[in-house]
């Protein structure tokens, strides 16, 4: 895993910077945003800063206007949500003063423009690129057009034979797509990595934008969602299992959505009204994280009738 894997989002980033004033690269922590931005700067120039660095964060909060004005363009600010409202407002003022494209490339490990403490939306000024953990197409070097092929030319797909066997699929499901988790050599090391990852997200990232009254319920809720991944999101059932209110489950689930760990997928129907009113399905956004939370291994998943692989595969095979 030492060689860099090309990301599908790279071309989107290049095109967007040439057309828009602000480009926001969103995605879960450790999905590869920093690497993507550093490679972009090496190719196209500009100034790179990370607000995970204490001195940079201090400077951004002390004088956000100067911080947004200084440096060559594009100004690349990693983990920009940590700078808060005032930095976002300073960026807004800069791009309203100069409407040239390619001024700012921002990244965040939260959907930071939906966070209540960040009031300014940059609406009409920014475009968004989501960077998820590695998709199967990126890991295998395949194309990202499988769904398009299925609908446009199904005859091209039917009958294709794969060299992969069931054990191969179960292995990639349990490994997930986070670059750091893929580098480790043992299941024990991967378990330690995911344990630290969840603690960081709960204690730091969510704690930065939300006041959590039932902190112990957060990892338990994430585990219940992992067990129900691919199933209908039954808020009342989950609330009873946790011993909290339905409102708490809804609020905490929205926090997990904000940090890209959970995705609620609207129900499918050819009827638009039904699609909007039916109960959505809930997914963890990384199968390796789901395997960690449920403490399952490829060996456990080989047992006939295990329900997890089908639901997880729908997540891991989706393109970035």
UniProtKB/TrEMBL annotation:
Keywords: ATP-binding, Nucleotide-binding
Identification of the protein by name: ATP-binding protein
Ranges where the DUF4143 domain occurs: 204-301
AAA domain ranges (all copies): 20-138
SUPFAM superfamilies associated with the record: P-loop containing nucleoside triphosphate hydrolases
InterPro entries, alphabetized: AAA_14, DUF4143, P-loop_NTPase
Organism, as annotated: Planomonospora corallina
Origin superkingdom: Bacteria
GO molecular function, one term: ATP binding
Pfam (any one): AAA_14
């Amino acid at each position: 895993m030492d060689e860099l894997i090309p990301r599908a989002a790279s071309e989107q980033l290049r095109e967007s910077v040439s057309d828009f004033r602000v480009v926001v690269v969103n995605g879960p922590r450790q999905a590869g945003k920093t690497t993507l931005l550093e490679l972009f700067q090496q190719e196209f120039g500009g100034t790179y800063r990370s607000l995970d660095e204490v001195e940079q964060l201090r400077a951004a909060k002390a004088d956000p206007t100067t911080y947004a004005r200084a440096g060559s363009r594009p100004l690349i600010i990693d983990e920009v949500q940590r700078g808060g409202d005032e930095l976002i407002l300073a960026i807004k003022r800069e791009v309203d003063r100069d409407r040239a494209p390619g001024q700012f490339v921002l990244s965040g490990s939260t959907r930071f423009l939906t966070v209540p403490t960040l009031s300014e939306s940059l609406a009409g000024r920014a475009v968004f690129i989501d960077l998820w953990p590695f998709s199967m197409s990126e890991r295998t070097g395949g194309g990202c057009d499988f769904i398009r092929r299925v609908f446009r030319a199904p005859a091209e797909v039917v009958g294709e034979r794969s060299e992969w066997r069931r054990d191969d699929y179960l292995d990639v499901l349990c490994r997930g797509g986070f670059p750091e988790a893929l580098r480790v050599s043992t299941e024990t090391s991967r378990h330690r990595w995911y344990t630290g990852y969840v603690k960081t997200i709960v204690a730091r990232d969510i704690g930065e934008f939300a006041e959590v009254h039932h902190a112990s319920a957060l990892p338990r809720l994430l585990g219940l969602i992992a067990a129900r991944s691919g199933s209908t999101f039954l808020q009342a059932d989950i609330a009873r299992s946790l011993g909290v209110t339905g409102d708490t489950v809804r609020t905490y689930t929205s926090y997990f959505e904000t940090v890209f760990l959970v995705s609620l997928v609207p129900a499918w129907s050819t009827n638009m009204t039904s699609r909007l009113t039916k109960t959505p399905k809930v997914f963890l956004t990384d199968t390796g994280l789901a395997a960690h939370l449920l403490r399952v291994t490829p060996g456990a998943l080989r047992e006939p009738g295990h329900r997890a692989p089908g639901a997880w595969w729908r997540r891991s095979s989706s393109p970035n």
